[in-house]
Amino acid sequence: KAGVTQTPRYLIKTRGQQVTLSCSPISGHRSVSWYQQTPGQGLQFLFEYFSETQRNKGNFPGRFSGRQFSNSRSEMNVSTLELGDSALYLCASSKGTNTEAFFGQGTRLTVV
Amino acid sequence: GIQVEQSPPDLILQEGANSTLRCNFSDSVNNLQWFHQNPWGQLINLFYIPSGTKQNGRLSATTVATERYSLLYISSSQTTDSGVYFCAVMRSQGNLIFGKGTKLSVKP
What we know:
Chain A has 112 residues and is an all-beta fold. Chain A has strands at 5-7, 10-13, 19-24, 31-38, 42-50, 53-57, 64-68, 74-78, 87-94, 102-103, 107-111. Chain A has no helices and 11 strands.
């Protein structure tokens, strides 16, 4: 059974640009969550989607947004990139609330 | 919000040694998971263990939910066990809250 797939794996962007990251969950999983990992702040929750609805959101500015499609695939978008957005972005999928979460390989974003 | 504290922050072992990693959390939780982050950044699931004890090969974990802690045991450590181990808890909101991790280095 295929795991969680994130694309692209690596990305380099310039300050002020925007970026879209993609996450395909495990088949049958309806919940997708996004996390940002930086050396200074560790792993922080961005948002969670379930059946195309955002159910929960972390403490990030409005430049960070996401969506989920009817096939449960999810995208997150970061507009007006800042140097501090350089991070590893991880996506997790699960069957639903309070069930085991499985992570993708991540997208490493570098903003220059 | 809930606090998750992992100890020790760093651990250096000789190959073959045993170790215990600890995770304390400040409030009741619905879910607790242990992960190993590989050198490429992916979080590898080790245990889904809201309560009780589980074993998987040389690894085992115990969560005592009433006392708000979990322990990860690694026996006969190998160099491939090196990396960062994370504990993460989930409450009703549905998102995982991570500790800062324990960085394990196993020397040959």
